[in-house]
């Protein structure tokens, strides 16, 4: 009962410290408190290199927190769970597998029979607009098409939690807007909770219900903003609305300061 | 495909194929020139050798000459060698090299991937493997002869020790350098450790492993030949040893030519297999 009412994701005082190759310690995130409700779309913005991605690896179970707790659906994370989907910044499609086989991979890893996996994979390929590309290899696709494969490969597993680490940052501006719209379409049918990490403030406001601003590294939550723009949204048109511009200005006031701190530190390093 | 191509004005359609044609012609002409120059170079070198040898500028007894070498090969082909038919000698050497190669590759890949995946094993065995690798392994051939006798086993063993190390190091490196994103993605998608090894690490290490396969088949041949040279009952290496023993320099050269042909054919087969396996790679797709 409590599991059903508990939030999708909860971070309680989570910190993560890495050992650097030179033997020093690097704290990526510290004292992170964050709650993400079920079905909520949360965007995390912060200066580059501040530790946003680490937050995702903690939630996914790929890494364990050094201190504090990470809960998914009310239970502490222990290893990679089967409810989580992760779309990476870099290409993570398997180059030796065909498009169809890539989308089937997750289901096959989880022991779904081949015929059933194939059927589901075909269905998702059609939804991302790649129905005729089943037998191609990733190197024969464009960057945008490979991202669609990655989205299909993630959604086909029916994740309750969707973690996205600057998924569209390598795409050109037009493709990026298109993919954002498609992501919103795909997501609206699933009821999954999304954590979308980006350094692009416009993208985060256009997509999310909540924007979390992180401090300069080591990252912790600085401020959380609710976005009350109506859904369904189209990213290209929503960013022209007066309300959007107002929210943008408000959040930038908070984020800009952290960006400046990061930049000054970078300059100090160079000097 | 598009209708524009069909309805393009005549002027342009006349122009474009013209240019394309002349370009294709130039490319073809260049190919012919290169091939002709290659043959000419070979003929010149062989001709010079033959002429110098016949004119006794170089000692024909020590250096032989192309026509004598050809006669030797022809004699072996038609009358067989002192050890039996030529085909049998080739088959023996090839059999030893191939068997040694397969065992060496299998062991190298297995150990390489195991050590690449299991850090404890790598830490445990790493220094020993380095020490073994630093031994010039060809000196093991006499020991194998003592252990395994004059038969094929001793040659297979020397081929195995020569093949194992390059394959091992490449497989090890290949499994270490797997894209960490791919591994993370596979784990998120629900892959177990075993599935990560079999379906992510091994496929991405294959291009590393294949690079070593080309080199290592050459090593397998060396292992078999040297083994035969030291002591055997059959094989091309023994043919070399016997020709040397009778001061038949043409025989040594003839054996070399035969070996070169064998090695080239094997290399060709390997390249063919590689093309089939790496269809997913951009460079081999033909785009």
Topology:
The complex is a heterodimer of chains A (271) and B (287).
Chain A: H1 2-5, E1 9-19, E2 25-36, E3 41-45, H2 52-60, E4 67-72, E5 75-76, E6 84-87, H3 99-109, H4 114-127, H5 143-155, E7 161-165, H6 173-188, E8 193-198, H7 201-207, E9 210-214, E10 221-226, H8 235-238, H9 242-270
Parallel strand pairs in A: 3-8, 3-9, 6-7, 7-8
Antiparallel strand pairs in A: 1-2, 1-4, 4-5, 9-10
Chain B: H1 3-7, H2 10-54, H3 60-63, H4 66-79, H5 86-117, H6 119-134, H7 140-148, H8 152-176, H9 180-188, H10 193-230, H11 236-245, H12 249-277
Pfam families (chain A): ABC_tran (PF00005)
Organism (chain A): Streptomyces cellostaticus
InterPro entries (chain A): AAA+_ATPase, ABC_transporter-like_ATP-bd, ABC_transporter-like_CS, ABC_transporter_ATP-bind, P-loop_NTPase
Q: What's the tally of helices of chain A?
A: 9
Count the beta strands of chain B: 0
Largest sheet of chain A: 6 strands, mixed
Protein structure class of chain A: alpha/beta
SS strand fraction of chain B: under 5%
| SSE sequence of chain B, one letter per element | HHHHHHHHHHHH
Number of helices of chain B: 12
């Amino acid at each position: 009962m409590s599991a059903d009412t508990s939030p999708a994701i909860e971070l309680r005082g989570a910190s993560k410290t890495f050992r650097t190759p030179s033997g020093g310690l690097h704290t990526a995130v510290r004292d992170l408190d964050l709650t993400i409700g079920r079905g909520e779309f949360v965007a995390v913005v912060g200066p580059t290199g501040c530790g946003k991605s680490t937050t995702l690896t903690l939630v996914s179970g790929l890494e364990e927190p050094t201190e504090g707790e990470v809960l998914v659906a009310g239970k502490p994370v222990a290893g990679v769970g089967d409810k989580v989907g992760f779309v990476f910044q870099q290409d993570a499609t398997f180059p030796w597998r065909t498009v169809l086989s890539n989308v089937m991979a997750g289901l096959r890893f989880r022991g779904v029979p081949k015929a059933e996996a194939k059927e589901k994979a075909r269905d998702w390929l059609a939804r991302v607009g790649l129905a005729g590309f089943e037998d191609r290899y990733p190197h024969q696709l464009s960057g945008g098409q490979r991202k669609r494969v990655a989205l299909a490969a993630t959604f086909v597993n029916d994740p309750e939690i969707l973690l996205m680490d600057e998924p569209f940052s390598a795409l050109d501006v037009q493709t990026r807007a298109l993919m954002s719209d498609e992501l919103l379409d795909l997501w609206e049918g699933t009821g999954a909770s999304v954590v979308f990490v980006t350094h692009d403030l416009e993208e985060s406001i256009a997509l999310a219900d909540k924007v979390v601003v992180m401090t300069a590294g080591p990252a912790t939550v600085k401020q959380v903003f609710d976005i009350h723009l109506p859904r369904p949204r189209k990213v290209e048109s929503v960013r022209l609305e007066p309300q959007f511009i107002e929210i943008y200005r408000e959040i930038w006031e908070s984020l800009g300061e952290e960006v400046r701190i990061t930049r000054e530190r970078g300059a100090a390093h160079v000097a | 495909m598009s209708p524009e191509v069909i309805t393009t004005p005549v002027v342009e359609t006349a122009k474009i194929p013209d240019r394309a044609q002349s370009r294709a012609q130039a490319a073809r002409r260049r190919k012919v020139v290169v091939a002709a120059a290659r043959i000419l170079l070979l003929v010149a070198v062989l001709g010079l050798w033959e002429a110098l040898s016949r004119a006794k500028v170089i000692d024909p007894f020590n250096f032989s000459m192309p026509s004598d070498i050809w006669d030797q090969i022809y004699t072996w082909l038609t009358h067989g060698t002192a050890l039996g038919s030529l085909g049998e000698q080739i088959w023996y050497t090839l059999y030893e090299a191939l068997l040694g190669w397969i065992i060496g590759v299998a062991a190298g890949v297995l150990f390489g991937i195991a050590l690449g995946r299991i850090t404890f094993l790598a830490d445990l065995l790493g220094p020993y493997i380095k020490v073994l690798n630093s031994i010039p392994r060809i000196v093991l051939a006499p020991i194998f002869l003592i252990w395994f006798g004059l038969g094929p086993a001793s040659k297979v063993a020397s081929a195995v020790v020569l093949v194992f190390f390059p394959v091992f190091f490449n497989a090890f490196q290949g499994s270490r350098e797997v894209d960490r994103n791919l591994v993370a993605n596979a784990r998120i998608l629900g892959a177990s450790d075993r599935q990560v090894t079999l379906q992510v690490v091994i496929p991405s290490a294959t291009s590393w492993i294949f690079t070593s396969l080309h080199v290592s088949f050459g090593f397998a041949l060396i292992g078999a030949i040297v083994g035969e040279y030291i002591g055997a009952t059959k094989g091309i290496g023994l043919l070399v040893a016997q020709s040397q023993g009778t001061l038949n320099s043409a025989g040594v050269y003839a054996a070399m030519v035969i070996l070169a042909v064998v090695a080239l054919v094997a290399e060709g087969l390997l390249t063919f297999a590689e093309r089939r396996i790496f269809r997913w790679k951009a460079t081999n797709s033909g785009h």
